[in-house]
Predict the 3D structure of the following.
Amino acid sequence: MEITRAVDCTTRRGNDAWFTGTVWQDPIVEAPDPARIRAVRVTFEPGSRTAWHTHPLGQTLHIVSGTGRVQTFGGGVREVHAGDTVWIPPGEKHWHGATPTQGMVHIALHEHLDGKHVDWMEPVSDDDFNAQPG
Ligand code: MN
């Protein structure tokens, strides 16, 4: 057993190429091989969200606080709340983030495949982000 800060715990701001608005990332674990798990706590300020993207081995999102939105491509926008857990299957195009008026914090858990855990796509439009949740 090891009590560790296994990663650089510096809070980092989400890259503008992949996030809209202000997003903060706090790494939790990037386990050494052969483990694949990666976990990060992500803080979305109101109005912020990821770009559209996929994960080669899927992703679990656990909502820690606030209210947020998640959408899979071709599906409606869903609202998520503290305590909810969302599973995104491998390869499914999606985004996640805050709501226009409320912040949200989630823990994202995903495994890397050959060092890659995400494939980024286009930004989420304001029309998609502001759509009424179903
Ligand atoms: Mn994702």
Observations:
- Residues 53, 55, 59, 88, 94, 96 surround manganese (II) ion (CB under 6 Å).
- The chain has one domain: 24-130.
